[in-house]
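Before relying on records like the one below, remember that each one covers exactly one chain. Contacts with other chains, cofactors or solvent are not represented anywhere in the record.
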Amino acid sequence: MVMTTSAEQLLRLQCWLSPAFPIGAFSYSHGLEFAVEAGLVHDRVSLTDWLEADLRHGSGRNEAVFLACALVADDEAFVDIAEVAAVSFGTRELALEGLSQGEAFLAMILKVWPNEALHRRAGLLEVQPTLAIAMAVACTAHGIEGRTASHLFLQAWCANLVNAAVRLVPLGQTDGQLAQAALESAVIATAEEVGTATLEDLGSAALMVDWASAQHENQYTRLFRS
């Protein structure tokens, strides 16, 4: 059976992935703040390259794998996936970023869009959920098709980091949107690639992202928590 996403479900996804959704996403830069400090990201082109590498080969891709796997998992597999996701971060600050947003996201969904399925699956969690896991809980409970969820989740992931770079580099608003547009093909390709992924497909070759995050922990002045 082919699942489709209704107008109501699309509205929910847009709301959940909006910068206005209260999970504190604006306070995290995923290591970008140090990358800017070190001169590794200094304009629109270098920002696009940095984010595309992370999206296609690093933590962005891994988050998409966790989301895709959790969306189709039975209860037992879901618990295992959530446990792996919770310990998958390369640095302390990336763990703070992912787990705090996941916890805030799930708490808000439970309060505003509750249903029996949501409470049941959330009740299975034995660890703090990452944002990808919390998103999977919400989408599964509300019958939202996984392919749509994956594409929009990755687009929002990129948008948050582009917005951070607009403040950090700084970039103009137009350059920020040009970077977002340039990342569309990577978002689509990654979402399609992980559609049939398993946990065996996890891995990262974006070591500079983890390095920048680790350096950020000791950065003297900073605006962001990661």
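The radius of gyration is 17 Å.
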